Amino acid sequence: MYVFKDDALFRGCSESLKHLDMRIDIPAINMLTEYGVVEKLRNLRSINIKFGYSSHGYGDKSTRPLQFAFELVSQSTRSLVLRDFLDDYSIAETIAQYPNMQSLVHLNLSSVKLKLTEVIEVIKILPNLEYFRYTCNGLGSVPGRLQSKNIPRHVLKKYYPLSLRLKYCDINTFANKPTKSLAITAMLLALLCPRFTFAKVPDEVLAAYNSTIENSICDEPYLEFSDRLQCLLR
To answer: Which of 7, 21, 109, 183 is the most exposed place for a label (fewest CB within 10 A)?
Structure first.
């Protein structure tokens, strides 16, 4: 945890600091905001922050952890790793408020639960993104009856090309979410993003994930895309 009671750690190095790796909580966020640290750190290439919860709660919305982290991102930042961030508001809308987020190539939100519809919105906002990590929270609701057999065609028509840079997703899951959602998410991302070649999933669901994809590409509506989707099998 950040142990200083002021901005002592950042004095004299705000211009030269390129890589930030720290653990913070709400009191630290409030203090660093008060000292104007965010405005001083404008040359960070990579940011790695672990959030530690405390009894203080979130407080005012301006001090919420995700917003604080996004404010640290500048046009120089290429990598943002956030651990144990569990905010419950629309992440895509929040990202859209910070134009500098578009500079990111690597985004790790490993503990943030996102539906496929939210993932699509995040990727659409970040045109330079090549790597994205998050936790799968199902598919969400896409207009056009997402669960019907026209899902690939509908999604392709609506979003393609979603990203010309995204290559790789690292997708976590949790106990009450079926592996089928994970597999469908990977297949649709592969169809929407021409350079997408690999989705990493937890080892404990890998067999079921592969089985779902193998079965899906042998039948409609994914049969016609089977050659493209072979790259997902591990």
So the answer is: 21
